[in-house]
């Protein structure tokens, strides 16, 4: 029989002991990313968010590259070749800091780099992936359009052949990293179906004006992509895929990161509340000593820990080569929804302080409104799950 001294102690920051499931190397990934966020990002976040700027994005990309986080789940070409769980742990820490930071990494690694790594030519890979993994080149991913988000099959951006060249015309909207990107992966309609193109940012006719007046993801670069008679050589096309299978495979990679990242946002809100509730006094004692506050904290803790368990389960399936797109939809739908519930409850515990950028909660609340929508709205993921459960297509 073990003595009381031998029993594990309850940890309010890891109530279910989920960290015990991680290897020492995975915990080192967590600690390294957490330290980068603490030292390079968190001191500036409130100011960046208030100003609606991300002035150190390029510098942070290089720091993230040194850490091996960019494209960390890809093999070769300067990429770290780490596991899906490793990548998820990094995403949780990045979004616990800010959704905009995790978005930078997700778009870089799971969208732009993955598209080139999975569907590009050897020349594309050699030219771009080592620099992108190092953070020396930033990528963006052009799929969403002003009039077509959830229905990419109706995109209006077109690419036509002109001799040996391709000529692209169209617009893309809500593009993370667009204004600071060295390269864009742009998807367009062609006579052969949807094709992807590697577009260097300096190509004539290509521009990426930044989108202003956002109330969410304010510490993030969000842009429009404008393509006016952008002429590209024949080898600019991604040769290994035709049709929506190409962009949708990339989106599935990014959605997986959101499953973990949204847990980080919820966890950050919960930790802020626990710290606040044990020090803020009303009616002669800390507010954490009142039943209603403890009930909210308990509900938030259960939601965050359930989200971590779901993310870990999907990560293990991904590492085993068994993860299905419908399962990613489970994670994206429920973990984002759960993080939003946690953030809103956390704001009520903080009272008036809940709207202050001295605390992370209102920033996470606003950011999660974007996370809910991008990489597939809640409605799209609900219909994906519904179709998988019933065998009936309700999209049309």
UniProtKB/TrEMBL annotation:
**GO BP, one example?**
fatty-acyl-CoA biosynthetic process
Amino acid composition bias (Basic and acidic residues), ranges on this chain: 1-16
**What cofactors does this protein use?**
FAD
Q: Which InterPro entries does this one have?
A: Acyl-CoA_Oxase/DH_mid-dom, Acyl-CoA_Oxase/DH_mid-dom_sf, AcylCo_DH-like_C, AcylCo_DH/oxidase_C, AcylCoA_DH/ox_N, AcylCoA_DH/ox_N_sf, AcylCoA_DH/oxidase_NM_dom_sf, Glutaryl-CoA_DH_mitochondrial
PANTHER family associated with the record: GLUTARYL-COA DEHYDROGENASE, MITOCHONDRIAL
**Domain spans labelled Acyl-CoA oxidase/dehydrogenase middle:** 140-230
> What does the similarity note say?
Belongs to the acyl-CoA dehydrogenase family.
* Region Disordered, residue ranges: 1-20
Where does the Acyl-CoA dehydrogenase/oxidase N-terminal domain lie?
23-136
Signal peptide positions (record): none
Molecular functions per Gene Ontology: fatty-acyl-CoA binding; flavin adenine dinucleotide binding; glutaryl-CoA dehydrogenase activity
Could you list this entry's UniProt keywords, alphabetically sorted. FAD, Flavoprotein, Oxidoreductase, Transit peptide
Which protein is depicted? Acyl-CoA dehydrogenase family protein
Checking SUPFAM superfamilies in the record gives:
Acyl-CoA dehydrogenase C-terminal domain-like (SSF47203), Acyl-CoA dehydrogenase NM domain-like (SSF56645)
**Where does the record place the Acyl-CoA dehydrogenase/oxidase C-terminal domain?**
243-389
């Amino acid at each position: 029989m073990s003595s009381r001294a031998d029993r594990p102690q309850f940890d309010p920051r890891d109530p279910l002991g989920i960290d015990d499931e991680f290897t020492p190397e995975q915990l080192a990934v967590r600690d390294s990313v957490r330290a980068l966020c603490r030292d390079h990002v968190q001191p500036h976040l409130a100011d960046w968010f208030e100003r609606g700027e991300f002035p150190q994005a390029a510098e942070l990309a290089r720091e993230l590259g040194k850490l091996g986080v960019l494209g960390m789940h890809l093999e070769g070409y300067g990429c770290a070749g780490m596991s899906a769980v490793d990548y998820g742990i990094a995403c949780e820490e990045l979004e616990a800091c800010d959704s905009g930071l995790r978005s930078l990494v997700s778009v870089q690694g799971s969208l732009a780099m993955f598209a080139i790594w999975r569907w590009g030519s050897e020349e594309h890979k050699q030219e771009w992936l080592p620099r992108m993994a190092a953070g020396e080149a930033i990528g963006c991913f052009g799929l969403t359009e002003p009039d077509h988000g959830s229905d990419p099959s109706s995109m209006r951006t077109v690419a036509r052949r002109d001799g040996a060249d391709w000529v692209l015309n169209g617009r893309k909207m809500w593009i993370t990293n667009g204004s600071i990107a060295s390269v864009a992966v742009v998807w367009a309609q062609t006579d052969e179906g949807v094709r992807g193109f590697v577009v260097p940012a300096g190509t004539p006719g290509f521009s990426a004006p930044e989108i202003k007046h956002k109330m969410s993801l304010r510490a993030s670069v969000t842009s429009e992509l404008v393509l006016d008679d952008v002429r590209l050589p024949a080898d600019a096309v991604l040769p290994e895929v035709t049709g929506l299978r190409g962009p949708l495979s990339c989106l599935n990679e990014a959605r997986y990161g959101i499953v973990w990242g949204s847990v980080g946002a919820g966890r950050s809100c919960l930790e802020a509340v626990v710290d606040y509730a044990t020090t803020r006094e009303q009616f002669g004692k800390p507010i954490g000593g009142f039943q209603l506050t403890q009930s909210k904290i308990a509900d938030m803790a259960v939601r965050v820990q359930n989200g971590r368990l779901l993310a870990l389960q999907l990560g293990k399936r991904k590492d085993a080569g068994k993860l299905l797109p419908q399962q990613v939809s489970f994670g994206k739908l429920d973990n984002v929804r759960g993080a939003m519930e946690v953030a809103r409850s956390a704001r009520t515990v903080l009272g008036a302080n809940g709207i202050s950028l001295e605390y992370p909660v209102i920033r996470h609340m606003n950011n999660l409104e974007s996370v809910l929508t991008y990489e597939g709205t809640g409605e799209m993921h609900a219909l994906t799950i519904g179709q998988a459960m019933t065998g009936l297509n309700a999209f049309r």
